[in-house]
Specification:
23% strand, FAD/NAD(P)-binding domain, homodimer, four-stranded parallel sheet, 12 helices, 444 residues, alpha/beta, five-stranded parallel sheet, disordered C terminus
C-alpha cells in the first residue's frame, strides 16, 4: 500500500499546486492571507525566471540570478508548504496526488505544470538538439559553446572546424531571436578576444523559421525590424524553412539543403507538460488541459489549471491564450482571489486577459516592443524599446538582490562587453566524437 | 604515432605551465612582457579562488564569483596561449608534455599542479566523503545539504532523520573551521526559516581534529579563540580524535565511538597532485616535487615546480613551505622574473618566503588573524580581524566585477542573513538510499 508524504496537517482546506512557474508562484502568493493550507510541489527547489534564460546560455549573467528558491520566496508566508517531488499520477476520485515522496491529499488541485519542448515526435532531434526550457539546459548550452571553441582549436579540417563553430537555432520566436542576437554580439566583441587563434569570420549563426516572419504574434513592425537587426548583425535568417532531420552533425532542411553543426538549439515549439490521471476528454490538442473561464478543468469541481498548460477555449481565443508569462501571471493572481471567493460562497470572477504587449531584445540598443499602455498601442524599435525591455525585465525579477546583480552585470557588459561568466562548469552536451571523420557532399 | 596538439608557433622559447592555480596564474602574469610563448594547460577553463570555496558550499555566494575564465584574465596578454587538456605524462628527454589533446613541446616546463585531497589510502572514505578541493565539490556539497533537508521532511525515524540533519567535518584547518562556522550560522538564521517543519535543535555539527588545537600553524591565541567561537556557536569540536572509518552512514572514531551522518566533509589533508614522468628521486613524501631555491626541480635544467606541488627543502623549512596561497603566489611571481633573468644570462634570485600572516573567519564579526605588517606581528580576534579578513579577500579576487558581486552578497547577508543562493542545480552526492533501514547500537 502506498504511503502518504509527511506534511503537517493544519486542518485547513488543502490547495495543492503542481508546478512553481509563473502561474503557480503567483497563485501561491495570491493565497497569502487565505485561510487554507497551500502545498506547492515542484521537481526543482527553485522558480526559474525564464525570459532571461538565454542570457545565462550566452554567459551574460549567472544562473543564480534568475533562479530563486521557493522556500526563500515564501519564508514569511505561514500557510505555505513546499515539497520537492515529481508527480506521477493524480487520482481525482480519491483527491490524491501520487508523487515520488508519497501520496498528497488535496481539497483543491491546481495544475500549473507549464509546457515542455515539443520535438513533434522526432526522437533523433530530441537526442541531438539542445533545448532551452530549463536553467540546466541553459548551462548545458553555455558549456557546449565554450567547449566547442576549445575543441575547434585542435582541428585543421575545415568542415570539422565549422561543425564546431557554426550554430543553428530553430525557431524564430523570442527565444530564438534573442539567442541569435546574443551569439552574434559575442562573435563580434567577445569570442575573438578569448580565442585569438580562431577566425570568427567563419563562424555562422543560422536562424531557421518555419513561417514567413520572425516574432509571430507581435506587430508587423516588430517582425520586420527584428529581421533587419539580425541581418545587419550577420545572422543568416532562413524564413519559410523547416528542419527535416538532424543527426548531431548534418541538418537537413525541407528543401533538401544541408547545414553542418554540432550544436542545434531547438526553440521551435512547446507542448503542454502532460499529467497522468485526468479524463482524456479534458486534454486538448498540444497536451493542454481545457478549462472554463474560472480556470476550472472542464468536467471537475475542484481541479483547476493555470498558465501554459491551461487552454481557455473561447470564441475570441479558439486556441486558448498564448503560452506566455503574462496570461500565466494573471491567471495565477485571479485564481487565488477566486478560491477565496469560492470558500466564502461568493461568485467567482471570469478571467479576462489583459495583453500588456510583448517585446524582444536583439542586441545592445536594439529591441522591439509592442506595448499597450492606457489603452494605447505603442510600437517601438531600437534604443527606446531596449530601455523599456531592460526596465521591465529588471523589475520583474523575483528579488531585489537579483535585480542588483543583474543590473550590475548588464551595466558591466554594456561598457566592456565582458561579463566573465564564460565558465565550463557541470554538464555539457556529448555529441558524436570529434575525431570521427565524416564526409558530406552538400554543404550550404 | 602520437600527434601534436595544434598551437601557433611564435618562434619564441616555449614556457609550458601545467596548472592555473595561484602559482601558475601568477607566473603567467609575471611573464607578460617576457619574450617567450607562455602556454598554460589546465583541465578546467577557469581559475578558482579557493579561499572562498566554503562560501559557495554554504550558499553565501555564487560559484561564478570565485571562478574566472583564463581566457578572460589573459585577453590582453599576447604571448599567452591556453589549452584545455589533461596532462597524462611528461617526457623530459624529448621535452614533451603528453596531453589529452596531443603532444605539447616545451623549452621550459613549470609544474604547478597543486594538491589534491589526501584520503590516506582509505577507499571507503574516498567513495563516501565529500571533498572541498574544487568548485564542483563545493556545488556538490551545497546541493547535498539542501537535498538532505528536503528528504528529512519525509522521515519519522529519529536516527534516519539525524543522519540527514547532522554534519561531520573532518579537519580543523581553515577549511574545516570556516565551514563549521558557516553551517552553524545557517542553522541559526537561515535553515529554520526555510524549513519551519524541521527542528534545528537536533541538527548537530561535529568538527573532528586529530591534533590538540584548531588552526595548527596559527598562533596559540588564534587556536584558542577559534575553538571558543565555534563552541559558543554550538559546534561540537572533537580534539585529539581521528576518524577510523566511514561507510556513508556511520563514522567510527579511533576511540570506538560512533557518529551517524550521511554527509561527512573531508578537509583533513592534501597531497601533491602527482605528475607522471619525473625521476622517482625528485618526488618526496606527500607526492611533492623537490626543488632548489630557484624552484628548479632537483636533477633537471629546464623543469621547475611552484606552489603546493613544490617542496623547497631547506634547513629552515625541512618539510618545504606550507601548502598555502601565499608561497604559491610569491613563487609564481619570482619564477617569472627569474626566467627572464635566465634568458638574459643574469643570475637568478633565490626564493625567500615572506609570511604575511594567516587568518580564518568563523562567523559574522568573528575571525582570527595573525598578521605580519612592517615587521611587526599583529594578532587579532573578533570584529577587527573579521574586517581585515573581508578586506583582504575582497581585494584578492581576480576581477573588479567579482569584487562588486561578492561585496554585494556579503553586504546583503550581513543585514538579512539571506543571500538566496540555496539552489539545487547540478550534481549532488548519492549515498545509500534513504529508505534503507539501518540499525546501530552505539550513537554518541
Amino acid at each position: 500500500m502506498a504511503k502518504y508524504a509527511r506534511i503537517k496537517n493544519t486542518g485547513k482546506p488543502k490547495v495543492v499546486i503542481i508546478g512553481g512557474g509563473f502561474a503557480g508562484l503567483e497563485l501561491a502568493k495570491s493565497l497569502k492571507k487565505a485561510d487554507v493550507q497551500v502545498i506547492l510541489i515542484d521537481k526543482q527547489n527553485y522558480h526559474t525566471f525564464q525570459p532571461l534564460m538565454y542570457q545565462v546560455a550566452t554567459a551574460a549573467i549567472e544562473a543564480d540570478s534568475i533562479i530563486h528558491p521557493f522556500r526563500k520566496v515564501f519564508d514569511k508566508q505561514e500557510n505555505f508548504f513546499f515539497r520537492l517531488a515529481e508527480v506521477q499520477h493524480i487520482d481525482t476520485a480519491q483527491k490524491l496526488v501520487e508523487t515520488s515522496i508519497g501520496l498528497i491529499r488535496y481539497d483543491y488541485l491546481v495544475i500549473a505544470t507549464g509546457a515542455t519542448t515539443n520535438y513533434f515526435g522526432d526522437k533523433l532531434m530530441e537526442e541531438n538538439a539542445i533545448a532551452m526550457k530549463s536553467v540546466e539546459d541553459a548551462i548545458n548550452l553555455r558549456n557546449t559553446i565554450l567547449s566547442n571553441f576549445e575543441n575547434a582549436l585542435q582541428l585543421d579540417d575545415e568542415e570539422q572546424m565549422n561543425s564546431l563553430m557554426d550554430y543553428v537555432i530553430v525557431g524564430g520566436g523570442p527565444t530564438g531571436v534573442e539567442l541569435a542576437g546574443a551569439l552574434s554580439e559575442l562573435r563580434k566583441h567577445v569570442f575573438p578576444k578569448d580565442y585569438p587563434e580562431l577566425d570568427f569570420q567563419s563562424m555562422d549563426i543560422h536562424l531557421i523559421q518555419s513561417g514567413g516572419e520572425l516574432l509571430k504574434g507581435m506587430s508587423k513592425e516588430a517582425s520586420v525590424k527584428s529581421l533587419q537587426f539580425l541581418e545587419e548583425m550577420g545572422v543568416k535568417v532562413w524564413l519559410n524553412r523547416r528542419v527535416k532531420s538532424y543527426d548531431g552533425y548534418t541538418v537537413t532542411l525541407d528543401n533538401g539543403e544541408t547545414l553542418i553543426t554540432r550544436t542545434l538549439i531547438w526553440a521551435a515549439g512547446v507542448t503542454g507538460n502532460p499529467i497522468d490521471g485526468l479524463k482524456p476528454e479534458s486534454i486538448l490538442k498540444g497536451n493542454r488541459v481545457q478549462v472554463d473561464v474560472y480556470n476550472r478543468v472542464v468536467g471537475y469541481e475542484n481541479v483547476f489549471a493555470i498558465g501554459d498548460i491551461a487552454a481557455m477555449v473561447t470564441t475570441e481565443n479558439p486556441q486558448g491564450h498564448p503560452m506566455l508569462a503574462q496570461p500565466a501571471l494573471q491567471q495565477g493572481t485571479l485564481l487565488g482571489k477566486n478560491l477565496v471567493r469560492l470558500f466564502s460562497g461568493e461568485p467567482m470572477q471570469p478571467f479576462v486577459y489583459k495583453d500588456q504587449g510583448s517585446m524582444a531584445t536583439i542586441g545592445k540598443n536594439k529591441a522591439v516592443a509592442d506595448l499597450k499602455l492606457f489603452n494605447r498601442e505603442i510600437k517601438s524599435q531600437g534604443f527606446f524599446a531596449w530601455l523599456i525591455w531592460m526596465f521591465i525585465h529588471l523589475i520583474s525579477l523575483v528579488s531585489f538582490r537579483d535585480r542588483l546583480v543583474v543590473m550590475l552585470n548588464w551595466g558591466w557588459n554594456y561598457f566592456t562587453y565582458n561579463s566573465g561568466n564564460r565558465l565550463i562548469v557541470g554538464h555539457k552536451q556529448e555529441n558524436i566524437p570529434i575525431t570521427e571523420t565524416i564526409t558530406h557532399k552538400t554543404v550550404i
